[in-house]
Design goal:
Strand order of the largest sheet: 1-3-2-4-5
Strand content: 5-15%
Largest sheet: 5 strands, mixed
Low-confidence stretches: 1-5, 22-26, 246-255, 268-291, 293-312
Radius of gyration: 56 Å
Mean pLDDT: 73
């Protein structure tokens, strides 16, 4: 009897130790959230992104728990992140497929793309195969500013998805009504953000006072300028026309003066020789002075010629 009691006690202790061992093994996986995810920036980590509804994530769950029991021997820490409860982290790491595993060491991030069995995972750490994997580029690092902004967009999309589900299931709205509400909200938010952006730009870069003028004032100035241009064109046309008239008149005057000088020279020669001047056609454009000088010379000449005839 005593031996049987001892055997029962030993069996009970073994069962308790097995349960404790399983509990310790399960607690070896660290559950990371948006509040404590920065713990992986120190030391070496293997992090798994999963979702409770994902079939592939369910298949790897047992292997991942068993892999976490070797964490102390491998000198690493294992963690998992639920993307449904931490959508910001899925955006920060830009997770597009599930499950996704990352190897993190001292702030360097590398995505694990090998098979998901226990031996391959352990060899990836023991043999340091992660050194052959190219780390994530600087502009896609989860701790960068740009990826922090992306995480907020993922949070917003997750919130809108839950809100849509709430409107459809809890309040019983039809799908078109939910879409209409989201469309109106999007337009209003865009208008408000645009107005805020314009106000910020005006505050940072205030426009000059001279640049602020109404459309009617600018149009009036444009009409006045066009009127001045038209007047200027008319004045230029008048100047050109008057200049051409002056050139015409000056050309005729010079021609008349030349003709008058020729007539005077011929008349003087006729008077000197005593012969009557040759009959010429009177020019219609002779000046009055030539016409006055011509008759006086002719009268004197006629008197000298008429005296011998009368004596005869």
């Amino acid at each position: 009897m005593a031996g049987g009691v001892k055997l029962r006690e030993i069996a009970t202790i073994v069962v308790i130790l097995a349960i404790c061992g399983q509990t310790i093994a399960k607690t070896a996986v660290v559950e990371l959230t948006e509040d404590n995810w920065d713990l992986m920036l120190k030391n070496e980590w293997m992090v798994k992104f999963y979702a409770p509804w994902c079939p592939a994530c369910k298949n790897i769950a047992g292997t991942w728990d068993e892999f976490s029991t070797w964490s102390d021997d491998l000198g690493i820490k294992t963690a998992k992140i639920d993307v449904t409860s931490s959508p910001g982290l899925s955006g920060r790491f830009f997770v597009t497929a599930l499950p996704t595993i990352f190897h993190v060491i001292n702030g360097e991030f590398r995505q694990y793309r090998g098979t998901r069995d226990l031996n391959t995972l352990m060899a990836f750490i023991e043999e340091k195969k992660w050194e052959a994997v190219e780390p994530v580029s600087a502009w896609k690092k989860p701790d960068s500013i740009q990826m922090s902004i992306v995480s907020y967009f993922f949070k917003l999309s997750h919130f809108l998805k839950e809100l849509n589900t709430l409107l459809l299931k809890e309040y019983g709205l039809p799908a078109w009504a939910s879409y209409a509400i989201f469309a109106v909200a999007t337009i209003l938010m865009g208008a408000i953000l645009g107005l805020l952006l314009v106000c910020v730009i005006d505050c940072l870069f205030p426009p000059k006072h001279l640049q602020r003028q109404s459309f009617s004032e600018s149009q009036g100035r444009g009409d006045q300028g066009s009127g001045d241009e038209i007047r200027g064109d008319e004045l230029e046309d008048e100047d050109v026309s008057s200049g051409s008239d002056k050139e015409k008149y000056s050309g005729t005057d010079t021609e008349d003066n030349d003709e008058e000088d020729d007539d005077d020279d011929e008349r003087i020669e006729d008077v000197g020789t005593g012969t009557p001047p040759a009959s010429k056609e009177a020019s219609p454009k002779t000046s009055p002075s030539v016409r006055r000088r011509g008759p006086k010379a002719k009268k004197g000449q006629h008197k000298r010629e008429s005296s011998p005839e009368q004596s005869d």
